[in-house]
Specification:
It is built from seven helices and five strands. It has two domains: about 120 residues, Ribosomal protein L10, N-terminal RNA-binding domain (Alpha-Beta Plaits, 2-Layer Sandwich); about 50 residues. With about 220 residues, it is of the alpha+beta class. The protein has a five-stranded antiparallel β-sheet with strand order 2-3-1-4-5, sandwiched between helices. Keywords: Ribonucleoprotein, Ribosomal protein. InterPro entries: Ribosomal_uL10, Ribosomal_uL10-like_sf, Ribosomal_uL10_bac, Ribosomal_uL10_bac_type, Ribosomal_uL10_CS_bac. GO terms for molecular function: structural constituent of ribosome. Belongs to the universal ribosomal protein uL10 family.
């Protein structure tokens, strides 16, 4: 390969690493051209599957700062550069490897951290992003419903209390007057007391009249 072609090939792999959320290294020895095409179709928009030369992949990995790939880059190598859901891509590769044992998943990289084959398998066993988002949305809606219930409960109680008071007021309108009849009765009490005290005030006048009469009698 000419030097310019080699540099261009390395630059292309570097660009694929930089543009991807992760990458999975595989050995495709024994797969037919048709099976490779089927694998690419099964990955869909989640990943692009590219056959690479090991020496060029090593150069590209070193350029982007990925370590730990040297031991994985042996034999016929193809890399799945994951552009979409990492978990879905890992599931697609796992399922295809089960149906086609000649595809060997050797490891990969996620967010710049190397992963071995076991870690890729664990990644594939996780729930997809859509499922996790769905569960999160369900949990948020449940929490929101509980919050709305808690906020509305006191209002509902207040409404029931207001309704009960209104019904009672319709039966006894004096409730709305704040018991206006009671002060009127209280105001009449002093008048009654004054009436009761009046005879006591008249007693001295009567005594004075009697004394005047006695005086007149004595003078006679």
């Amino acid at each position: 390969m000419a030097r310019a072609d080699k540099q261009a090939a390395v630059a292309e792999i570097v660009e694929s690493f930089n543009a991807s959320a992760g990458a999975v290294l595989t050995e495709y020895r024994g797969l037919t051209v048709k099976e490779l095409q089927d694998l690419r179709r099964s990955l869909g928009e989640n990943a692009t599957y590219a056959v690479v030369k090991n020496t060029l992949a090593k150069l590209a990995a070193n350029e982007v700062g990925i370590s730990g790939f040297d031991d994985l880059l042996t034999g016929p190598t193809a890399i799945a550069f994951i552009n979409g859901d990492v978990v879905e891509a890992a599931k697609g590769l796992r399922d295809f490897a089960k149906a086609n044992p000649t595809l060997v998943i050797k490891g990969g990289v996620l967010d710049g951290r190397p992963l071995d084959a076991n870690e890729i398998a664990k990644l594939a066993s996780l729930e997809s992003r859509e499922v996790l988002l769905g569960k999160m949305a369900g949990a948020m809606l449940a929490s929101l419903s509980q919050a709305v219930y808690l906020l509305n409960a006191p209002l509902a109680q207040a409404a029931r209390l207001a309704g009960a008071l209104q019904a009672k007021a319709e039966q006894d309108p004096s409730i709305l007057a704040g018991g206006a009849g009671a002060p009127a009765a209280a105001e009449e009490a002093p008048a009654a007391d004054a009436a009761d005290e009046a005879p006591a005030d008249e007693a001295p006048a009567a005594d004075a009249a009697e004394a005047s009469d006695e005086g007149d009698t004595a003078e006679a």
